[in-house]
Structure formats: C-alpha cells, structure tokens
C-alpha cells in the first residue's frame, strides 16, 4: 500500500468515526421522539425523524444544516437539493421551500443539526478574519456579476465536522457553554466561509455588495408581506433600479419580488389553517387575498392541492 493510499484510508476512517460520534450524540439528545429539539445553545437545534415524511412547505430562515444520518430533499421553485451525511446545506437568505425526509427508519432515523445564522455575526467574522473586502470578488458583487443563489449544498470536510463535534460535546458540560459555545459557533462559520462555496455566504454579508442589498430586500418583504408591494418604492429604498432589483432578486431567490411575496402569503395561510385551525376563506383574507377563488388557484399551484383538500388530508379527515 502506497503512502498516499494509506493516508486516504486513515482519513476515511477518521471521517467515519466523526460521523458515528455525531449520530450517537444527536440520537441521545432526541430520544424523546420525532421533531425539532432545542438545546442549551440558542442557535443550535437537533432534528429527528424515524420515518420518511410527506413534502412539507416551510419558510427557511438563514441556517446551516448538517445531516448525521439519513437523507433529505429540499425544493426551491424547480431546483432540487439533496443533502445527506456527505453534504451540508446553507440557506443564506430567507426562502420559502418544500422539504421532505426521504431516508429514515426507526433503527436508523434521520438525524440532523441546524444552526441558525445571524448575518451580522457573519459580517463581524469576515472583518475579524481580514476578508473585507475580498478583492476581485467584491467588485463582482458591486457590479452585480456572478450573483449566487441564496441556497447551496456542499461537501462536509473533516475540519468542519471536527468543529461541529466540538460544539456538540459542549452540551455535556453546560457550565462551559457561555464562554466556549460562541467560540465553537464562530469556528463552524469560519470553516464554511473558508470552503469552496464560502464566497456565497460572504457576498451576502458584505455591505458593499448587491447580494447584501437583495438580502435586505428579502428581509423587508418578510416583514411587510401583508402590505401591497410597490416595486418602484422597494427599489428606491435599496438604491437600485427596478430592472436591476428584479434581475438580482431572481438570481438569489429564483423568484421575482412579487412571486416571493405571494409564496410568503401562501405559506402563512397554510400555517394558519394547519396549526391554528383557521378556515380557508378566513386564512386567505388574513394574508391579503380578496378573492377566495384566486387564493385557491394559487394555493393549488404551489402546494399541489386546493386548501381544503390538503388540510383534510393532513388531518386525516374525509374530503366529503
């Protein structure tokens, strides 16, 4: 066996050991059952599913997801992303998406950790790391060239996995969390920023980039999704032309601002019906629809079934 082959074998064994430890730690902390489990670290959440799930629409806030076991698929418009123990997912701006766990059993449940991302923390980290501005990349961002989608999957490497494990181990010693958890989180984000696709997260955090303006536009639409949308006014607030706003917004989110607002409204209406038990007409009115028939058409187009039918199916109720 050559030296290079031996080194590769040792590295592979080390990665398998890291993954096995992550599986064990998440499994122990989610033994209560399926769902999202909070931890003593505010930004860290653990997810467990013992079986595959139906497609589940949700609004994803900025986050980093690392899968320890199983596999999940997320869909953004017509783009499909797979992430499993070999890949991690980064959502750098708020995006309405559809997720589905496709590989999970009671013996080998889907196990994942989620770390919520604060763009302000990323911006501070970039400055501390001496990466602002990142040279040629910053000029491209200012000129609107090479705009990247606000969602990407990348391969997990040993250094990122090691940083994730250090954060997980801290949960065993709660007294260390106030001092060491922020340091562990910074290292995780640093490893992502230093990765092959880290420039995507970097561009969205830099104040001089158009990507940052689009991230700001997403935040504004998220906060004002119930209000009528005037593209010209939004563009003026962002110091952009309307055509540039449309082009760059779609590059990051795959949607126009108007489509994005519509998706946010439909997701919120679905939540009101599914969680709060609100009737479809009332939910439609709550999120800004004056026409129930238009609401039903657009709801079916996005979620695959009319509101009443989908809610009944989700609750196990008869349709008739």
From TrEMBL:
Highest taxon in the source lineage: Bacteria
Keyword Secreted: no
GO molecular function, one term: sequence-specific DNA binding
SUPFAM superfamilies for the chain: Homeodomain-like
Transcription recorded as keyword: yes
Keywords assigned by UniProt, alphabetized: Transcription, Transcription regulation
Pfam families tied to this protein: AraC_N, HTH_18
Name of this chain's protein: Transcriptional regulator, AraC family
């Amino acid at each position: 066996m050559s030296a290079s082959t031996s080194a590769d074998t040792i590295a592979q064994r080390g990665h398998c050991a890291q993954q096995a430890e992550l599986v064990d730690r998440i499994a122990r902390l989610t033994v209560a059952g399926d769902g999202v489990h909070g931890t003593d670290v505010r930004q860290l959440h653990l997810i467990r599913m013992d079986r595959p799930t139906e497609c589940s629409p949700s609004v994803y806030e900025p986050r980093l997801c690392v899968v320890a076991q199983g596999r999940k698929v997320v869909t953004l418009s017509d783009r499909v992303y797979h992430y499993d123990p070999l890949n991690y997912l980064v959502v750098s701006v708020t995006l309405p998406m559809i997720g589905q766990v496709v590989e999970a059993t009671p013996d080998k449940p889907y196990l994942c950790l989620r770390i919520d991302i604060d763009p302000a923390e990323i911006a501070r980290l970039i400055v501390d790391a001496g990466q602002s501005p990142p040279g040629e990349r910053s000029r491209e961002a200012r000129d609107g060239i090479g705009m990247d989608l606000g969602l990407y999957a990348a391969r997990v490497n040993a250094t990122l996995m090691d940083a994730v494990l250090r954060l997980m181990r801290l949960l065993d010693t709660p007294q260390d969390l106030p001092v060491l958890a922020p340091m562990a989180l910074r290292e995780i984000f640093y490893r992502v920023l230093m990765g092959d696709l880290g420039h995507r997260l970097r561009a969205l955090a830099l104040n001089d980039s158009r990507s940052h303006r689009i991230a700001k536009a997403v935040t504004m639409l998220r906060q004002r999704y119930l209000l009528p949308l005037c593209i010209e006014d939004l563009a003026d607030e962002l110091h952009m032309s309307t055509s540039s706003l449309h082009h760059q917004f779609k590059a990051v989110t795959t949607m126009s601002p108007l489509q994005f607002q519509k998706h946010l409204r439909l997701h919120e209406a679905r939540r009101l019906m599914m969680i709060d038990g609100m009737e479809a007409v009332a939910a439609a009115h709550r999120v800004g629809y004056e026409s129930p028939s238009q609401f039903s058409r657009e709801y079916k187009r996005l979620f695959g079934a009319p509101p009443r039918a989908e809610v009944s199916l989700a609750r196990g109720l008869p349709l008739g």
